[in-house]
Amino acid sequence: MNIKLDKLRSFVLVADEGNLTRAAKRRHTTPSAVSEHLRQLEDQFGLTLFDRSSRGMELTPEGRKLLPPARQALMQIAELDEIARQLRCEAPTTLVLGLNAPPEYLKVDQLLRRVAQEVPEARLELVTSNSYLITDQVREGKMDLGFMYGTPAHEAVKAIYLADIEFCVVGPPDSELSALPPDPEKRRALPWIWASDKCPITHLMPNIIGFEREQTRVVSDSEDEHVTLSMIRAGLGYGVVEREMSQHWADRGSVRILTDPPIRTALNLVVRPDSREHKLIAAIIEVVHGLWQDQGTTAPETSPESDLLARTFIQK
Prior knowledge:
CATH class of the largest domain: Alpha Beta
Largest sheet: 7 strands, mixed
Shape: elongated
Order of helices and strands: HHHEEHEHEHEEHEHEHEHEEHH
Radius of gyration: 30 Å
Distance between the termini: 65 Å
Mean pLDDT: 84
CATH architecture of the largest domain: 3-Layer(aba) Sandwich
Number of helices: 12
Low-confidence stretches: 297-316
CATH topology of the largest domain: D-Maltodextrin-Binding Protein, domain 2
Number of domains: 3
Oligomer: single chain
Structural class: alpha/beta
Helix content: 40-55%
Strand content: 15-25%
């Protein structure tokens, strides 16, 4: 007996819905088409499958007995199709994604789940680095795409805006300051933990303090925010750190966030322009962008601080 799958699907859907119109909607077809499927199937079986009434479609005793094996047949076909799809794909294509911040801040857990569901042909290899190096490695083809703060200086990479990220001035937990002193002399006399040379925060700090690095009391240099926070928690001095990360430690009484105006910059996803034509990379970009748009982010407003950060990189 040659049973067409489309007729079997219509039978199961009508049994589930008890209504031709709703079943047709789920099948993206018309009630008359579904009704014809049932008529042909009843003719093929030589059985009446439904009692039709003003209340809808109700299975006959024969229909109830045929429903379980019909479901099982459709499930087996779906499983067969999935195995064939996996065999066609062979091994997933590995794409290297650069992370410039802790995975939890970049929604990596959600990203991996969505990629597994929506882009099973791809496998993400995660590499932790900093914005400056991520941009260079994407440009050189050593990474497929990556996160960065600010706007890339190279025309060979394209930035896709995701969100506006806040940074703030952070001090030791026993600091007596609630905000930076308005007097520039007092600001530069504070013990400062200075960002590395490749970080735009190093260029922004003179605007915050009022003096260049050489004129400021610098107690240490830092390569990333984790090191900066460790030094601040140890009481060495003050630094500029991402607000969300700072708040995590402030809530535990380990640091103190100063109530100065926040420093903002854009979190971008960077990719080579030619790579955006690659089917899998384009699909990953769509997933990442969707994750951040679900949050309701909009493009950042222009400000002196964001203009400065847009011309440089923030190292992470």
